[in-house]
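Example record

The entry below shows one chain as it appears in the dataset: sequence first, then structure tokens.
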Amino acid sequence: MQAATQPTPPSSFRKAIALALAAAAVVCVVLLAFAWPSITSTPHGLPVGVVGSAEQVSQLEEQLADQSDGALELTSFDDRDSAVEAITHREVYGAIVLGEQKADSFTAPEMLIATAANSAVAQMLQSMANGMQAQLTENVNAGVEQQVQQLIDTLRAVMSGQAPAAAPGAAQLPTTFAMPDAKITVTDIAPFSEDDPRGAGLSAAALPLVMGGMIGAMIISTAIHGSRRRLVALIVYTLVAGAALSAILEGWFGALEGNYALNALAITLSIGAISATIVGLRSVFGFAGLGLGAVLMFFFANPISGAALPPEFLVGSWGTIGQWFPPGAGLTLLRTLSYFPDASTTFPWLVLSGWALLGLLLIWIGSLKKPAVTARPSAPAEP
């Protein structure tokens, strides 16, 4: 005869209150993890180029030091071509080509931006160009008014007899004034693709990369037993997911450009770095490792990845730290491969490869653990 199942006793009120407080604390941590980078974000040390004479650059640095509070870090270039090259190599986010005033001509300034580098920075430089345009227009209008006033004063002096009138046949005073070209040109050196002009597809790809790595790791580590079988499943999953996501983002949404194979490899390695790490932590530490990997990638690395805001917008060195984790390195690699083919991609490749190798090492360490053998209870003797 089987013994009757005993009903589960009710939990104590102390346990109920403790679990409720712990759940509320988790919600607060989630809110802080995702809202803190946006709320505390302020630009500091954004690398921006400037082209102009030493006197112009010095004046601009003094002006920005008073107005921007260290938001921009100016780098001087000899000419416009050098500034464009620095933008395409992702050394600066944009550049200011200052105007040139000559005796009989005037060249208006030009603002070089790179929307694909980061939309927030491009909008910031666009606003700066609008402010420069307003100031330039005001200066031009003041100069014209001064010329008109000088003409009026000269005419009054001639009519009042205080100045000799011009002799017949002499050059007459001008009646019109040539307005200088005072319109600032904004040139986008690296725009997004025509199918995704705002870069919405690339920004939206940040979460699927992280979630894809986490979901695949959870399924593989819990539903599949055996280190070699988990490794095979991990390789197949990352290859298929990378090829499929790259086809959607590039072929369907038009959010990516460039070589499809390289983009697919970058997505594969990004997902693989996250999945391998979580599977490896699960193999070594059990279900505690699974939770640790999810917290590490989703609640820590994802908010500081620089997906929405550039690393220079985050407080302190958190933006730089975020580039050492798979979410930040993966997005930087995809952005560079698609829109900045001349820029170096060595660092993100190394970061993703390092995390993938770490995950494989953890999986190997977990395979060395001897499975626990549960002793079967002996059958009761028959009476």
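Notes for this example: Residues 200-367 form one domain. The chain is about 60% helix and 5% strand.
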